[in-house]
Write a structure and sequence with these properties.
The protein is α/β, with parallel strands linked by helices. The chain has 5 domains: about 60-235, no CATH class; about 255-365, Penicillin-binding protein Tp47, domain C (Immunoglobulin-like, Sandwich); about 375-435; about 450-510, Single alpha-helices involved in coiled-coils or other helix-helix interfaces; about 530-740, Ribonuclease Inhibitor (Leucine-rich repeat, LRR (right-handed beta-alpha superhelix), Alpha-Beta Horseshoe), CATH 3.80.10.10. The strands form 7 sheets. Strands 1, 2, 3, 4, 5, 6, 7, 10 and 11 form a 9-stranded mixed β-sheet that branches. The chain is flat, with a radius of gyration of 35 Å.
Length: about 750
């Protein structure tokens, strides 16, 4: 009995006793009330006990299931069969099997849309397998292990969709560990992610799992005698979404259209869902079940139900709606004596949604017939010719990219036309892409300004070779020769400006030649400690007999800097051992830094707010990175600290590096990570730390605060559990994964 029923019975008793008090006369109601109160007390106790036992008996989570596992107990045609078919469908593909792996998902569109709710895997030509969680760009994203990835489409060997990745399940506590070992599981509190944002379809990266006994679509897991697992039918009337802090949604603003017979996807019956609400439902769509009632307009006597697979039957377009079809296949055969006309329902099962059911009647005009046809490709050829006549530079990059995708598919269709419907579809999509092209902003024709370049050339040519070292003079001549080739006004302005900058840099980097001591000129005096000298783009400060520190930049407009292992000043060689506090702070145009092998320390705020800094290399012998050293370097995307000697990373050293996605710290000698060292790096998804010497007290407060919620840490195998506790306590959050290297 539910608690609300118990409460009602207790209330009945209270009312009955109130009647006695009012009338002064006992009645049967009194005895009934007494009996109800006693029973209520007993039931309440039993219910609490039952709920506690249930909570202890089962664990709740999301699990990735194959198509066959998902449909096996759902009372659909050929449920559970993994049989494949060698028969090609209307698209020329092998997707007429039962609930086997889907191959139809194309590398053009399927790569993105297959990652919303499905388990999708890309195999590269070199054998690498990419298990995709979601996309951040057309060819880049995040894998299921939290690591970022990118690829070139030409390197893809194959792509498959094997099933659904987020099916809510309940598993007996005694079987849970074995289940987790056999299946990919997302536990409550962990993050759900998927998809690629384009037009009406939006990806998701921060949903938190919260599966309960009442989650809609919940399946019960049973461990079989042989150690395998099976899955019950889904719960279709659940009231919980399965997502933390989110109510169960209901699809709204959906328009249903039963399409005229076409067969463009190989289907014999198709229904499209459009309208303002289709995008949200499409991104969360997991599976679709069809039920055929034949001539029964009351929808009470089903003849047969059918399960489906994403990409083979179900699809969503970024702008043209959800497209659902049934294909004559091993998963769908009409009952004998029927032709598909009559009454149907289809139900969309979606993550976090109430089941969405549509009722409709299919007429003869909606059913694709098996007929011989002559395929006319004239319109498709014209569309291809029209697309090929266009010029890429006239349009925006995004709209041109969309056109290229549709053009390739159109050419593929023309090379082997399958049906008139598939040809017409390719034509329609290509013409739509042509129509959707966005004109690029016209570029003003301007004459290239070579004034600064010519001035730099004149300055370089006025210098004397004998005044400078051979090496620095050689570099000057290289820059000078390159500059002279760009004095033509037809040259690109960016190339001219870069050549002028390179030449000025080469002039600044000239090193005066030693005059020697031949009786006519005295050798220059060795600089004393504290002396500051400018060599090239850098000001050095002498700190010891043979050592200097990078003290400051020569010009704040510096764009690239290479800090050498040694530098010559007045003919004497000094080791460059440190980068001083605030040495390059605020150099907003600095994009690249190479750190020499003798540098041991990077000082406080050394590169603070170098907002365009993208690359830091070298630093092979760094022992200490001071406070705020790289704080606010918002363009820094990947950080590899290769030094095997690094011992300390200071407070806020890499704070607010908001583009940073991965960090590798190679040193096994690292003993300290300061307060807020990596905080505010919201895209930081992968952290590798090779040291075993960190302790709770040596990792500062909020060291990893506000990094990516599901970031993956790779650490020494013996430190996985210990470091997980530390990193969570230092701001990383409860959803991080800590794995052995």
């Amino acid at each position: 009995m539910k608690r609300k029923d118990v409460s009602a019975r207790i209330l009945t008793g209270v009312l009955a006793f109130s009647m006695v008090a009012a009338t002064g006369t006992p009645s049967m109601a009194v005895f009934a009330a007494e009996e109800s109160a006693v029973e209520a007390e007993q039931i309440t106790g039993e219910e609490v006990k039952s709920e506690n036992e249930t909570a202890q008996e089962y664990q709740y989570a999301y699990a990735a299931l194959s198509w066959a596992e998902y449909w096996k107990n759902e009372d659909v045609y050929n449920a559970g069969s993994t049989e494949s078919s060698a028969e090609e469908d209307a698209k020329g593909e092998l997707d007429k099997g039962a609930f086997d792996t889907v191959s139809r998902a194309t590398t053009n569109h399927g790569l993105h849309r297959g990652s919303y709710q499905c388990t999708s895997e890309i195999t590269m030509k070199d054998g690498t397998k990419l298990k995709v969680a979601y996309y951040t760009g057309v060819t880049a994203g995040v894998l299921t292990d939290g690591n970022p990835f990118s690829y070139n489409k030409k390197d893809i060997e194959s792509y498959v969709v094997t099933g659904l990745k987020y099916v809510p399940v309940k598993v007996k506590t005694d079987d849970y560990e074995a289940f987790k070992a056999a299946y990919t599981v997302v536990e409550n509190g962990d993050t759900l992610s998927g998809g690629f944002t384009e037009n009406n379809l939006k990806n998701y990266t921060d949903l938190v799992a919260e599966v309960t006994e009442n989650t809609n679509g919940l399946k019960t897991v049973t461990k079989n005698e042989d150690g395998s697992f099976s899955f019950s039918a889904r719960v279709n009337k659940g009231t919980d979404s399965g997502i933390k802090d989110a109510a169960l949604k209901t699809a709204e603003n959906i328009t249903t259209t039963v399409k005229e017979a076409n067969g463009s996807y190989g289907e014999f019956l198709r229904v499209d869902l459009t309208g303002d609400g289709y995008g949200a439902l499409g991104a969360d769509m997991q599976a679709v079940e069809w039920t055929y009632y034949g001539s029964d307009s009351t929808y009470t006597k089903p003849l047969q139900s059918y399960g489906t697979k994403f990409a083979a039957d179900n699809w969503m377009h970024k702008a043209q709606g959800i497209q659902l079809g049934l294909t004559d296949s091993l998963r769908c055969k009409l009952p004998e004596g029927t032709d598909g006309t009559g009454y149907w329902t289809l139900t969309v099962y979606a993550l976090g949604y109430n089941d969405y059911t549509v009722k409709f009647e299919a007429t003869d005009a909606n059913i694709v017939k098996d007929e011989e046809e002559t395929v006319n490709t004239t319109a498709l050829e014209a569309a291809i010719k029209s697309a090929e006549s266009l010029t890429e530079s006239d349009y925006t990059a995004a709209s041109w990219s969309d056109l290229c995708v549709e053009l390739k598919e159109a050419k593929d269709e023309l090379a082997a036309p399958h049906t008139q419907a598939t040809v017409d579809e390719a034509t329609e999509h290509l013409n739509a892409a042509i129509k959707a092209l966005v004109k690029a902003e016209p570029k003003e024709e301007t004459k290239t300004d070579v004034t600064k370049l010519n001035a730099a050339i004149r300055k370089a040519e006025s210098l004397k070779q004998s005044d400078y070292t051979a090496d620095s003079w050689k570099k000057l001549q290289t820059a000078l020769n390159a500059a002279k080739k760009l004095t033509d006004a037809a040259a690109e302005q960016t190339a001219v400006d870069q050549a002028a900058s390179d030449l000025e840099t080469a002039i600044s980097a000239l090193v005066k030649a030693d005059t020697g001591n031949n009786g006519t000129t005295d050798k220059k005096k060795k600089p004393a400690v504290g002396t500051v000298k400018t060599v090239g783009q850098i000001k050095y400060k002498v700190t010891g007999k043979n050592t200097v520190t990078v003290n400051k930049y020569a010009k704040k407009t510096i764009t690239k800097v290479s800090i050498p292992a040694t530098v010559k000043i007045n003919g004497y060689t000094f080791k460059v051992t440190a980068i001083a506090d605030s040495a390059f702070s605020g150099c907003s145009k600095l994009t690249k830094v190479a750190v020499g092998s003798n540098v041991k320390t990077i000082g406080n705020k050394a590169f603070h707010k170098c907002t365009e800094l993208k690359t830091v290399s070298g630093a092979s012998n760094i022992t200490k990175i001071e406070n705020n050293a790289f704080n606010g370097c918002k363009a820094l995307k990947k950080l590899v600290l290769d030094s095997k000697s690094l011992q300390s990373i200071g407070n806020a050293a890499f704070k607010n590096c908001t583009a940073l996605t991965s960090i590798t710290v190679s040193s096994t000698k690292l003993t300290k990570i300061g307060k807020e060292a990596f905080s505010g790096n919201k895209k930081l998804a992968a952290v590798t730390i090779k040291t075993s010497k960190l302790t709770k007290s040596s990792v500062g407060k909020d060291a990893f605060k506000n990094i990516k919620a599901n970031a993956v840490f790779k650490v020494p195998s013996k430190k996985v559990s210990f470091y997980k506790t530390i990193f969570k306590a230092k701001g990383a959050g409860k959803n991080i994964k800590v794995k052995k290297m």
